[in-house]
Amino acid sequence: VGGCTAATLYAKRGLKVALLEISKDLAHYKKICTHYLQPVATDTIRKLGLAELIEAAGGRRNDLEMRLPWGWVRGGDPEVLGYGYNIRRQTLDPILRDLAINTPGVSFFPGTSVRGVIRDDDGRVGGVVAEGDAGRGEFCAPLVVAADGRSSKTAQLAGVKAHVHDNGRFTYFTYYRGVPLSSGATSHYWHLHPNLAYAFRNDDDTTLLGIFVSKGALREFKADPMGNFRRFWENIPDPPLIGNASPISELRGITEIPNQWRRAAAPGIAFVGDAAMVLDPIWGTGCGFAFLSADWLVEHTAPAFGAGKDMLGALDRGLEGYRKVHRSRTRWHYAHIASFSKVRDYNIFERLVFSAATRDAKLATRVLTYLSRAVGPFHLITPAALCRAVMVNLGAMLSGRNRPRIRRPREIAFPATVEIGGVDVG
Length: 426
What we know:
Layout: H1 2-12, E1 17-21, E2 36-37, H2 42-48, H3 51-56, E3 60-61, E4 64-68, E5 71-73, H4 78-81, E6 85-86, H5 89-101, E7 106-110, E8 113-119, E9 125-132, E10 135-140, E11 144-146, H6 153-158, E12 162-165, E13 169-177, E14 187-192, E15 195-201, E16 206-214, H7 218-222, H8 225-234, E17 252-254, E18 259-262, E19 265-266, E20 269-271, E21 277-278, H9 286-301, H10 311-340, H11 348-357, H12 361-371, H13 383-399
Parallel strand pairs: 1-7, 4-14, 11-20
Antiparallel strand pairs: 2-6, 3-6, 4-5, 8-9, 9-10, 12-18, 13-16, 13-17, 14-15, 15-16, 18-21, 19-20
Helix pairs in contact: 1-5, 1-9, 9-10, 11-12, 11-13
């Protein structure tokens, strides 16, 4: 996502771009992804000319509802929340790739892998050594954009290390066809400590169901993955209407999904998408921040290519600006999400605001705006938000309805000795 977005946007600015991709298959797509395109990325999607293509391919405009121990957070103001898209990567990736390689100025090199980083005498990155069908060669450029994912080979070669924070849960997910959500919305989260889940309605009448369970239950879960997956959904409130439906894909699992971030830029090189930052996939931020990071990068660096003799200096100043905006726009999202990955209970502020959001449309809008990543977590704890949450919960207590206490979901016990099924690609 990030690489094709950056290539397209640079080329639209009149620049020449070499787009390198490891796979030769033009239909190749990322299989391990929740592909929830956050509303905060919609402006970038429109800038690319991608919105119409997504909708023509059956992508759905998303609207999110979140189930908490106190009830549902829903009914937010649609004019404030906006919308993103739900679309499978097997549909999105070929469309985005085709858009990039058919943008004038982009030269596409499929089946090409980065083998080394070129540096000048001052240590500034000035290109890459890559290998493809034509053999090994050099791609020299004033800027290298690494969009090669969590385990970025380019970052390793450039010596830019990642900061890693553990995730206390594992995940399994699969697709069904013809499975609606209980409320008719396109997107549901269940945040029922310690277990989490999501359901997204996508193109071709498909529904993606995913669960996140504490690692302490991993051994028992893997004894019967599909059976335990179905039992999980039977034990949560207001589940999707699975009925007798069967999965249309294998059950995919990831047992290690740490959060990580690295410095988003250094002289001559930038990182976008998962190469810059990876967050717990339950929150569906990966694609959205991939679109945004590529857009931020182009906005900060494209003007430098017209700076004449000072181009490299202007470019590196632009890269530093990109690094700062990436950090400022994502750091507190990262901190809050990484803290939830520790399988901790709600803190006092979260209990106060989240419980009130199940009872009040304005607070629901505030929480859902945060989940769209349009604002940071401090938006949840402004004096106005906290005062309103206190008044809403106090009113509920005095009326004797919906007391603001956590109602624990039923414990989900996984049998330890049953026939193994499903596919674990972790």
